[in-house]
Structures
1.
Amino acid sequence: MLRLFMILITAMVQSCTPGHDTFPEIQGHRGCRGLMPENTIAGFIHALDLGVNTLELDVVITGDSQVVVSHEPFFNHLISTAPGGREITEADEKQYNIYTMSMDEVRSFDVGLKPHPKYPLQTKMPATKPTLEEAIFAVENHISKNGLKPVRYNIEIKHIKDQEYKYFPPCDVSANLVFKAITKAGIKDKVIIQSFDAGCLEFVHRLDKTLPIALLVENRDGPAHNLARLSFKPEAYSPHYSLVDTDLIKHCRREKIKLIPWTVNEVKDIEAILRMEVDGLITDYPDRAIEIRTSLFGHR
């Protein structure tokens, strides 16, 4: 925390790059994981009602080639209950492999009733993993019915190279299926695609060079090294918030790349990161982040 405090003080005394928009966007991580079951329609709707600018969500692929909203390619024991109320343990969670299931099988698991030890404020309710198209339809319908402002979708394609064909299809398959889903849903102009896997982002970029892309980062190799993994300049650089410092801010400003760190949850960290004039942040608690943003920057 001392390091973050010193970074904050340095950032506050430096002038912002002329013309930089200091009103940051708030992205609801997996909807609003701190408050509602993650990556569920109910969580996305609640995040909308709180006033997020962007819904951050994760996608994997089922055995019948459906794009399903899920952080893991299996049913995580912390949030999941098997059909018939059977418990899923940490030891056996990976046998519940979404890549081997049909979407109908995926829907037979509950992901909203099990209390989460890390998020005691979560409202518990019956919930299932939706397809990407189902989630988009529900969000757009809620916006239309309630006269809410449009939101963006930050869609993370999950992929681990050495787990291809076991838990994930090859990158090009995932990229094509996601691209087809967002095209069919008519939201290409509202989407940003992100991934830790540069290869997946390359495939997305080949499909549509106008589609905004964010590179997720959790290493300390630095922005120059990480960005060199891509053959193009992404719209956003998205590191863990502990990696944000004045050098990174300067690099992103110089390259005209948005800086959107993740996952910023504690009040003191949200305030410190927002004062550093990032372009946005990803949080499990968008209610906290929106309140702090309002206190710092007012309404817009």
2.
Amino acid sequence: MTLPGGIAGVRTYRTLRIGSAEVPRAGAFSVRIRFFVRPKTAEPPRIPYTKWFDYDKIKDTLVWRTRQSGDVIAIAGGKKSLKRFLIDEKVPAAGRDSLPVLADGKNIVWIAGFRISERYKVTEKTTRIAEVTFRPETTE
């Protein structure tokens, strides 16, 4: 339900949420990508929409897209279908098809606003980093 003042009411699972959208949409957004050599003492940022990836593990062209049938994400101990991940995270069904996903060919690198793939995480062996900052555009 749309309310005055740009506020929306959304029923999700067992809750009613009133406010702005919580899930980023694949609409208007800006992206900043920076590449650099990993400093010895550097720690990945703890900013929700800025993530570091092991650049040497990226084999194809990074592309922003929405989910596709058969998408999976590498998680600790294996992999999980994107569909199951979004259900487990209680992402409203109405928002799942518009959620931005960063992909390396067929492999999911990052589900914007959620998690990155274990396959691309920065480790002690990482030498080159791709820093990606995703900024959803707001109308406020």
